[in-house]
Here is the input.
Amino acid sequence: MTNAHGGNIYAHKVRADFSANINPLGTPKEVTEAAAKACADCAAYPDPYCTRLTAALSAHEGLPTERIVCGNGAADLIYRIVHALRPRRAELTAPAFSEYGAALGEVGCETVRRYLSAAEGFELTDRTAEELGRGQDTDIVFLCSPNNPTGRVIRPERLKRIAENCRERGVTLVIDECFLGFVRNGEEMSAKRFMSGNVIVLRAFTKLYAMAGLRLGYALFGSAELVEKVRGSGQYWSVSTPAQAAGEAALRVEGYAERTAEYICAEREYLTEELVKSGFEPFPSDANFVLFRAYSGLAEQLMEEGIMIRDCGNFEGLTDEYFRIAVRTHEENEMLTQAIKKITSTAP
Here is the structure.
């Protein structure tokens, strides 16, 4: 049942998909309208430099255009960064998004993992913050905040320590912030506060604006030198014309991220309480998903009810007793909790 990623609704008959962490409020109509309109220009190649989108991102993020690179989702940029820099030794936390390790493996990079503890709620601790970036011969550190699949934000004081470690040793620090938009006052937790020449911050429209099918991400760089290396890596036309138009439109939608963060907070609390009532062990989360421990086989049982959740057995540092569920609409969340009650009530 374990898949490399969530969201594989094509292989199963699915009533509700909790395996992919997409905004339950859906794609803003301004975004879908802009993408549809842009299809009229699809006979021409897309702008390889995403000129208009990058200018809009520059205004949105407060960084010059020459320090922004757009890509076909954040995953595309992860691979482009790794292939451009070709690190020999990397440090990661575990569990974490599998594409970091997969990309590093393609260039033969040695990977050292700092394991997060269930007993500590999978939070990145002061101890781990002190270690990251200080390993002998480390070239690059990949982190995710909020982390996938645990949902935990890296606290600013710890992020500052890691950034200092990496800066002192000339280590490239990549912080994946693709889920930060779901966090109340998330910008206060951003690595942008500790940006230096060796820092790269990854962000995406995919999750927050429900654009998974369009694919659009971007990276913010601390130096133009890093930008040139990454921009020259990967495919030339990495972002389609409809995706670029959708991104521009998304940046013009007012209040969407704030409404989303409030909605997510309330529904995440509801799901967490229901998981506890069912006898499961949910872990604290700051994001739009919840990691919990139950028992092996739960995903298959829920799939029989037409509900897909993310079996986390293939995450480094977890077992098949761990699962991740996205925060969906309240109606869908009730559907999930009722299905869990049905299953657990008939368990021997």
User: Anything to note?
Assistant: The mean pLDDT is 95. The first helix runs from residue 29 to 38. Residues 29-252 form a domain with the Aspartate Aminotransferase; domain 2 fold (CATH 3.40.640.10). The chain has two domains: 16-26+256-345, 29-252.
